Amino acid sequence: MGLTMRKLAGGARVPHRKWTSEAAIVKMGVPARVIIPMVQHIGAPCEPIVKKGDTVLVGQILGDTGQYVSAPIHSSVSGTVANVGQMLYPGGGRVTSVEIATDGLQRPHESVRPQTYADKKDFLGLVRASGLVGLGGAGFPGHVKLNPPPGASIDCLIVNGAECEPYITSDYRFILENARSIVSGIKLLQSVLGIPKTYVGIEDNKPAAIKLMEEMTADDRNIEIVTLRSLYPQGAEKMLIYSCTGRRVPPGKLPADVGAVVMNVNSVSLIAEFMETGMPLVKKIVTVSGNAVKKPMNLEVVIGTPLRDVFAFCGGFTTTPEKILMGGPMMGIAQFSLDVPVIKNTNAALAFDVKDAKPAPETGCIRCGKCVDNCPMQLLPLFINSAAVKGDAERLKRFHVMDCIECGTCVYNCPAKRRIVQSARLGKDILRNLAAAEKKGGRANA
Amino acid sequence: MPDSGPAGTGMAFDEKYTVTASPHIASDITTGRVMRDVLIALIPAVLAGAWFFGARTLLVCAVTVAACVAAEFFSRKIMRRENTTGDLSAAVTGLLLALNLPPSIELWMAVVGGAAAIVIGKQIFGGIGQNFMNPALVGRVVMLTSWGASMTRWSPAVSGALFGAMPTGGGAVDAVSAATPLALAKALFTGGGLTEGLSQATLALPSYSALFLGGVAGCIGETSALAVLLGGLYLLCRRVITWHIPAAFLGSAALLTWAFGGRGTLFGGDPLYQILSGGLFLGAFFMATDYSTSPMTKKGKLIMGLGCGVLTAVIRLFTTSPEGVSYSILIMNVVVPLIDRYTIPTVFGGGKPHE
Q: Quick check: helix, strand or coil at residue B311?
């Protein structure tokens, strides 16, 4: 299908370091204990519906909420609830979580059986029941994505297999080993939701995955495999939509507003699998890598497996690591403890030694403009940086801090090593607090 | 307390992992590397200056660089800020200033100029990235207004002067003086303006090849357009600068001097002579592209280059001054915040700012 000719406005040539490309996915097995947080998605947190001492089975609902923008959380193991309380989670801090002592038998819950649906509404209900959230990283509930707001209609499905973050190979291995399931998920979504066209975006550094997907979809003219340039952040939602379709999602809008829905390769496959077997989202493919890991691998782990067990399964560390990441090095979250569990949107667990972990000292901005040239959102990162540091809300607005996707391209190429993403987050916070205060003040005046 | 890690896995009990905001990797580009590239790019111009004006120019370069670095060091110290001489930006300012000085400049003046460049042009505003005028040009203008005679005393360029004797007169004043190509052109154009004592013979304009390869009177870095061009191409290849400012600067200056440079006739000027003469190449590739004092966006850079070119042509053609590169860049430096303000790019996907 040829290389996409649409050029991103910016981006960074980050190193690939995909050491685990050739490592087939290994099933890790069930750890002694799992910790399942009630927050694994964007939206309302789930309320636990089990209590200490309860026996739980694989696929059984542990927590849910009446809110629409949310997704139920299932037990990934069979065993006994050891504790329900505040525990560390990868997003930082502590949230209500369910700790389960596993029995190793992995007995499935009675709800795990083939699913049937009469119409689109039924189908979307089942997508919610599967616990699906965006598996590429953001964790946006799947049924919300697939149900466009009134006035919008989806005419193309974009399947994300770009995997532009360094180190991570979980999606690549997943495509190689589960292409059939991905294709059946695409066909299912196309037929049930009436989506005429699907694009599967894969970066050109994964030729084997592109070839396989092209072979699997050769007979279907409605599925197009798009070879993307390996340029970070090619896999960011807005960039991917643009690369595949030429459509630009306006600031503050959703993909549905330009008729697109983006799903990770894992997500489309999960939908197909759930309809077939009824097994909800209880396991994840995780790339374990980094220069402090003894044996970098691609693992299939049950959700809730603590990082400690994940790294131990890979032979532990070559040296005491300095930094532990959940996710890739460009957008992943640094962890201070190995007790955090793998959750729904975890795609990598990385460990680095001192050499790779120590941030270079921050020096004065020299206004070289590299951040401006490279910003895929066409923002002026250096001005966002200075406005945020000064707490200047008016300038933060003028420089569109809210549109920053926090991809880190600006920081990657900054000669002065400015902490631009960090300050953009601060800037967003300043504006959010201001908006909240204004809202409150307005109400008081009314 | 976390439970004990599995034995033999290198997992400590007292975990203290570094937590920082993403991204967690960075390219190896640093401010120091950028500045080092600029220094490398200036080597051909320094060598050309030495070849045509003698070894003393190397001394001028060394003295100015030393003055700038020392000024940077002490002003940071007085302000109780961290020492930033390691990023080499002061050295770049020093070398650029030296290349903008006449070969016969008194060394003590060069020292004062270097200190003025760093202190008045840069550190007063907070150091690297905070200054709004090109520090080297600030230094040059301070010197030009303070010691006009020394700053416009041009020695003739002699091929191979590097290996010849040092100029007589204690190295400060040349026995012979010469006119710069632009002063000659101006004299022919306006019928005056040259210092007395210059023989009619020297009024012959230098050839294009002399202007391009070198061998004309002028500042140390002005004699060879080729040497400056080599450095400029190096900066472009290393992506230290983009083509926008040099192209717009040279292009607009050439166009305007072509259009209005002829006596009475439209498009009767000599644009090639104009862009090869004086500090235009040095200004377009090295001075106007200074990060701190040029716009952020490509569009802004084009406007900056255009403004510099227009002003240079206007000064060269319609004022009593033969050369206008320094002033036009300084004037455009002051306009940069305005340019930045009106060239904010449209956010990906739309025009309207976020509510």
A: helix
Q: In B, residues 66-105, which contact A (CB 8 Å cutoff)?
A: 84, 87, 89
DSSP secondary structure letter of residue B4: P
* Shortest alpha-carbon distance between residue A280 and chain B (Å): 30
Instruction: Tell me, yes or no, whether A153 and A267 share the same domain.
Output: yes
Which chain A residue shows the shortest CA-CA distance from B14?
A: A337
Interface with A, mutate which of B15, B38, B82, B348 (most A CBs under 10 A):
B348
Nearest Cβ partner for B23 among A331, A367, A402: A331
pLDDT for the residue numbered B11: 56
pLDDT tens profile A85-139? 999 999 888 999 999 999 999 999 999 999 999 999 999 999 999 999 988 777 8
Question: CA of A286 to nearest chain B CA: how many angstroms apart?
Answer: 19
A178 forms beta bridges with: none
> Do residue A247 and residue A389 come from a single domain?
no
User: How close A123 gets to chain B, by Cα (Å)?
Assistant: 32
Domain residues for the domain of A381 are 370-437
pLDDT at residue B39 tops 70: yes
Q: Which of B159-173, B271-285, B312-326 has the lowest mean pLDDT?
A: B159-173
pLDDT for B4 equals 44
Q: For B301, how many CA atoms within 13 A lie in the half-sphere containing its CB?
A: 24
Beta pairing class for A197-203 and A333-335:
unpaired
State the ipTM, two decimals: 0.90
Helices (H), B175-324: 181-190, 208-213, 225-237, 244-260, 271-276, 280-282, 298-318
Percent of chain B with pLDDT over 90: 62
Domains of chain B: 31-163+177-342 (1.10.3430)
Q: B332 pLDDT band (50/70/90 cuts)? A: very high
Q: Work out how many domains chain A is built from and give that number.
A: 2
Q: Quick one: CA dihedral B154, B156, B157, B160, positive or negative?
A: negative
Average pLDDT, chain B: 86
